[in-house]
Write a structure and sequence with these properties.
Length: 254
């Protein structure tokens, strides 16, 4: 009799355990249904920044995401097309986009600024500088973008350019994105370039690079190239940045 009761007890325990596990599974399923959809998560990406980041970094990421745009340019013969990244900024009551000159293929009329599914026309080219490789484009005010301010958001001293300073840029590498990419300053080349350890690919050229404190320190120019006995290698984790010190900001006053 004792063995029978013991067997019944084990059977009941097994049934109750299975029932509890089943309830747990159902609860997990119900909880998963409460999780936000990818559409909800991505609908306001500038507001969905990891709170594990320091407050200053969170503000910089939001500034980077809200000021980034895509620059589309078509050659006059409509045979060549370019898609680059850019940074929307305001200065002296007017609105502009800073990008790379090598992303400008044709006249202002064939260059558009893309934000989502909306396009803003180029008003005029303020400066196309092939030597330093930057372009400043005047545009009308762009909806759903928050421009950075020039000169207020430019560095006030050397600290923003310090070695191993954390950086962020938001752009469109490989025609995807916008992606916000973290990096750090690893060196300089004379007065010409700042080098980042980060990530880049075609399409991210022109993206504004921000120091950890939110200062705009430059724009993405290219990824580094290495030459070996086996040929040319692309170093997509070494990024060349044109520093803001090489931009002729006085041109926007004309």
């Amino acid at each position: 009799m004792h063995h029978i009761l013991k067997g019944l007890a084990f059977t009941m325990f097994g049934l109750l355990s299975g029932f509890a596990v089943g309830l747990g599974v159902m609860h997990s399923i119900e909880e998963s249904r409460k999780a936000p959809s990818l559409e909800e998560v991505s609908s306001h990406p500038a507001e969905n920044v990891a709170n594990s980041l320091p407050i200053a970094d969170q503000k910089t990421v939001k500034k980077s995401r809200l000021s980034t745009v895509r620059v589309l340019s078509l050659s006059e013969d409509q045979q060549t097309f370019s898609a680059a990244s850019g940074t929307y900024f305001t200065s002296f009551g007017r609105h502009f986009v800073l990008t790379v000159n090598h992303g400008i293929m044709g006249p202002c009329a064939l260059t558009k600024i893309e934000v989502g599914d909306n396009f803003t026309a180029c008003v005029q080219y303020i400066e196309l500088n092939s030597g330093v490789d930057y372009a400043i484009i005047e545009v009308e005010e762009i909806e759903n973008r928050v421009p950075i301010k020039i000169p207020q958001d430019l560095p006030k001293g050397r600290r923003a350019f310090s070695l191993m300073n954390t950086t962020y840029y938001t752009g469109f590498p490989n025609n995807s994105g916008p992606f916000t990419i973290k990096g750090s300053i690893i060196g300089y080349y004379n007065d010409d370039f700042v080098y980042l350890q980060s990530y880049g690919w075609a399409g991210s050229s022109g993206a504004g690079v921000f120091a950890q404190n939110g200062d705009l320190i430059g724009h993405v120019l290219a990824i580094d190239i290495g030459y070996t006995e086996y040929g040319v290698d692309v170093l997509e984790d070494v990024i060349l940045v044109v520093p803001v010190t090489r931009i002729n900001w006085a041109s926007i006053r004309r």
